Amino acid sequence: MFARNVSATLRQTPRFISKRTKVTLPELDWDFGALEPHISGQINELHYTKHHQTYVNGFNSALDQLAELTSSIEKDPNPKTSKQILGVQQNLKFHGGGYTNHCLFWKNLAPASQGGGEPPTGSLAEQIKQQYGSLDKLQKVTNASLAGVQGSGWSFIVKDLDNGGKLDVVQTYNQDTVTGNKIPLVAIDAWEHAYYLQYQNRKAEYFNAIWNVINWKEAAKRFENA
Ligand SMILES: [Fe+2]
């Protein structure tokens, strides 16, 4: 009886399901103004409601296009559709990266009242000490990476599973993210929209200030779970 029902359900399931659940903005654990004076409430509000929302919308749209094109090429394989599928890749990479990076970023930040800026403890603290000597040194290495972003990009502190789980600092451009065995522990946004309203051209000040609101508890959790 059960097997017959499953089989009937499968026969009725359309191959292309357009009404998928969309990605959405993540819930924030704090108010927009909670990271002041290090990151202004105005920046956080615009960053979240406008910039991140744009990546959410763009990613959903690219996923819809991909699903439609995938369904289409399954029915009628041809080079025109394959070219269109490749055309969607750039939007998937850009908006999917923007969506993912900002989700990491918000979770990486916390006001002092929620432990923001408090140094990590446990195995992450030990790993930092072993590799960099101190948290301050790791922050300096990360700041140098951020300062090296020409235009827009990100720097990530990662746990590199291809290198025995050691820490590394990785810089990417645009909304490129880290994937595979590089597990992001801390993601820092070096796009102008992340600091310009408050810091203007003094981006090094933003890179120094952000450590006051870095949520090392979240980073330690990611390190331990990877
Ligand atoms: Fe951003």
Automatic annotation (TrEMBL):
Binding positions for Mn(2+) per the UniProt entry: 47, 102, 189, 193
Matching InterPro entries: Fe/Mn_Superoxide_Dismutase, Mn/Fe_SOD, Mn/Fe_SOD_BS, Mn/Fe_SOD_C, Mn/Fe_SOD_N, Mn/Fe_SOD_N_sf, SOD_C_sf
Keyword Metal-binding in record: yes
Annotated ranges, domain Manganese/iron superoxide dismutase N-terminal: 24-110
Gene Ontology terms: cellular component: mitochondrion
One Pfam family here: Sod_Fe_N
Reactions catalysed, as given in the entry: 2 superoxide + 2 H(+) = H2O2 + O2
Uppermost EC category: oxidoreductase
Keyword Oxidoreductase carried by entry: yes
GO molecular function annotation: manganese ion binding; superoxide dismutase activity
Cofactors: Mn(2+)
Entry EC no(s): 1.15.1.1
Organism superkingdom: Eukaryota
Domain Manganese/iron superoxide dismutase C-terminal: start-end pairs: 120-222
Record key words, sorted: Antioxidant, Manganese, Metal-binding, Oxidoreductase
Family affiliation: Belongs to the iron/manganese superoxide dismutase family.
PANTHER family tied to this protein: SUPEROXIDE DISMUTASE 2, SUPEROXIDE DISMUTASE [MN], MITOCHONDRIAL
Biological function: Destroys radicals which are normally produced within the cells and which are toxic to biological systems.
Protein's name according to its UniProt entry: Superoxide dismutase
Record organism: Zygosaccharomyces mellis
Lineage, uppermost ranks: Eukaryota, Fungi, Dikarya, Ascomycota, Saccharomycotina
